[in-house]
Amino acid sequence: MRASLIQLSVDASESADERRRRAASLVRGRKGDDLVVLPELWTAGAWAYDRWGADCEALDGPTAEAMSAAAREAGAWLHAGSIVERDRDGTLYNTALLFDPAGEPRGHYRKIHRYGFDTGEATLMGGGEDVVTVPTDFGVIGLAICYDLRFPELFRALLDTGAELIVVPAAWPAARLEHWRLLTRTRALEEQVFLLACCATGKHGGMQQGGHSAIVDPWGTVLAEARTAEQEETVTADLDMTEVARIRTELPVLRDRVLDRARS
User: Fold this and answer.
1) Distances, alpha carbon 55 to alpha carbons 116, 161, 162, 211, in Å
2) Alpha-carbon gap, residue 165 to 188, rounded angstroms
3) Is 111 a catalytic residue?
4) With contact defined as beta carbons under 8 Å apart, do 228 and 200 qualify?
5) Domain carrying residue 100
6) Number of structural domains the chain divides into
7) How far is Cα of residue 209 from the mean position of the Cα atoms in its chain?
8) How many helices (H) and strands (E) in the chain?
9) Of residues 57, 121, 146, 191, which has the active-site annotation?
10) What is the CATH number of the domain that holds 186?
11) pLDDT class for 261, splitting at 50, 70, 90?
């Protein structure tokens, strides 16, 4: 199957509506792909906290409407990155959206690990509770977002609920680029999954985003990576999903887990 990461430029020069239209056009241009991925909070900006109240939306809001149509026109599964979701009770969440090739919503994930310590996302948003995997015609997709990469227990939980491919939209800071590169490879290797990590580029809220979106195979090998943190580009690779089972058989480390069995 063919997967593409759209390393979208997210900065203060565009409104959410303008970026929504541009992202939809880029997705429609990926006809022939099986899966297309966008970054984290690309409508409002992951670091533009002052925009979240104005740019938040419901699960069936303008981003979902535009991305559903774009997925249908591209004929591809679309992981539409994440939005600032406002729940019925007014709580904000960092929520990922997944659509099938018919444009139907097939799953959403509220980010469990909120970044910011005592500021930003950690104080302005609610935290998700559910580990989310979605079956597709090419394998089971697990959903995570950005800061989640630092918490291996989530990725082990995704593995245990069947994940063969994990998608991670992000707005990772350029200042910690080496952490991004290390963690994306590590999570793919330790869970023996394909990992698709799509990071935004551009600058907003005073933060330069890291770019360097990457597709990593279950051996921890980077199959494709964006060249910079500064340029918008699309990263594409062909994935042989049979490699997941082959590598898990060739190096059966998952079979040899001990501590989880001891607790069961």
Assistant:
1) 20, 33, 34, 23
2) 9
3) yes
4) no
5) 2-263
6) 1
7) 15
8) 8, 14
9) 146
10) 3.60.110.10
11) low
Amino acid type, 83? I
- CA nearest neighbour of 190 among 162, 220, 160: 220
Whole-number Cα distances in Å, 131 to 14, 32, 109, 124, 251: 33, 30, 8, 21, 26
Would you call 40 a catalytic residue per the annotation? yes
Encode pLDDT of 52-110 as tens digits: 999 999 999 999 999 999 999 999 999 999 999 999 999 999 999 999 999 999 999 99
Q: Report yes or no: 11 and 2 within 8 Å, Cβ to Cβ.
A: no
The tokens for 247 are 């590598």
Q: pLDDT digits over 41-58, tens only?
A: 999 999 999 999 999 999
CA atoms of 29 and 174, how far apart (whole Å): 28
Among 111, 121, 198, 203, the active-site one is: 111
Q: Is 203 a catalytic residue?
A: no
